[in-house]
Design brief:
single chain, 371 residues, alpha+beta, Arc Repressor Mutant, subunit A, 4 domains, 5-stranded antiparallel sheet, 4-stranded antiparallel sheet
């Protein structure tokens, strides 16, 4: 009779956990445990809770002490010490009303693009605490709209962002780029430059898509969630230029353990944000002048697509929109897509190159319908 191997139960292993960002997850859990036990915990207590060795606990405590004030106290002479968060550090709280809680919960879907990462888990911890505030029993309040009943308001008050990219298989990369950003570490990665559609991209660009891209070492200045995707504004050290990198085109990300950088005082993220047209900056800008038919004037006037947008309304109801955007292919492609969305109800007056591009696209579309 053949013998079957004994199936051993799967239990967490003690010691240093594996994974690029697992250490940070354990540090976050350590902080949660210390916050829940205000009197303090011994090293052995913490080691048992985190399923690690006491040596690892000491390392985690050193890391946590960089951002949170900790103290080690002795209950009695000769006894083991207890570690806890200083009482003065615990006092850093603020009151949150139910109306404010519901407003913050309404926007929680904007973080769906980060799902699966340790960064998302960290944000979700706070959102779950805010959810408890929203669900607490209502009390009489002098603040207007504060005396809200629950009535499943969380399910009926929401912000729906654009459909998020699926980064489920790249959660370690998300955490790595955020670690480099938050700790001002040099970030190394590969970057694919051209990802335009097959119809627009030259043959050599299409062939290069399967290649990993050039190696880049950069200083990450900012991270932007826009259009359901992630964009990193970073200074390319080798290229000596600050630019916007699409996370979709980045691979093999690695934050340096030794190389740090200083964030330039003159850096301002607002200069990179261009409303519906994405994240970009250029030494050159281009002025757009677009005219819309009276039949869609209300929808045009109701939406501000760019910070520089200015509207003028004619006597017959036509609307002219003027705005100034960076002269980059990515931004102008988004502008063209926006204009095409209005079909025959919009016409580009300036610049000529954009007008010709929109006209060519409409002619190609008409040809497909009429053969």
């Amino acid at each position: 009779m053949s013998l079957r191997p004994i199936v051993r139960p799967k239990t967490p292993r003690l010691g240093r956990p594996s994974g690029n960002f697992t250490q940070h997850r354990r540090i976050d859990l350590l902080r949660e445990k210390l916050e829940a036990h205000s009197a303090g915990l011994t090293l052995s207590d913490i080691a048992l809770m985190l399923r690690v060795t006491e040596r690892s606990v000491r390392r985690y405590l050193r890391e946590l002490s960089r951002v949170t004030e900790l103290e080690s106290i002795a209950v009695r002479p000769g006894a083991v010490h207890l570690w806890r968060i200083k009482p003065s550090e615990r006092g850093r709280t603020f009151a949150l009303r139910r109306t404010q809680a519901y407003a913050l919960l309404a926007a929680r879907r904007v973080f769906d693009v980060l799902k699966g990462s340790a960064l998302f888990d960290e944000i979700d911890v706070v959102l779950r605490e805010i959810e408890q505030v929203a669900h607490r029993p209502a009390a009489r309040s002098a603040v207007r709209a504060e005396g809200l009943g629950d009535v499943r308001l969380k399910e009926r008050f929401a912000y729906i962002p654009p459909v998020a990219r699926a980064y489920a298989g790249r959660t370690d990369d998300v955490d790595e780029v955020f670690r480099a950003l938050s700790e001002l570490r040099l970030l190394r990665f590969r970057y694919r430059e051209d990802e335009r559609s097959d119809g627009d991209a030259p043959r050599d660009a299409r062939e290069n898509r399967d290649r990993p891209g050039a190696r880049i070492a950069a200083h990450p200045y900012a991270l932007v969630l826009h259009g359901g995707a992630i964009t990193c504004i970073a200074h390319d050290v080798g290229g000596r230029i600050t630019r916007a990198f699409s996370f979709d085109r980045m691979s093999e990300l690695s934050a340096s353990e030794a190389d740090r950088f200083d964030l330039p005082l003159e850096f301002a993220m607002e200069e990179w944000l261009h409303g519906d047209f994405g994240v970009a900056q250029s030494a050159r800008s281009v002025k757009l002048l677009i005219e819309f038919d009276a039949r869609i004037s209300e929808s045009v006037r109701a939406r501000r697509v760019h910070p520089t947008q200015k509207l003028a309304v004619a006597a017959d109801g036509r609307v002219r929109a003027s705005l100034t955007v960076p002269d980059t292919p990515e931004v102008l492609d988004r502008v063209r897509t926006w204009v095409l969305g209005f079909g025959s109800a919009a016409i580009v007056l300036e610049p000529r190159a954009l007008a010709d591009g929109v006209a060519d696209e409409l002619r190609r579309a008409a040809k497909r319908y009429h053969g």
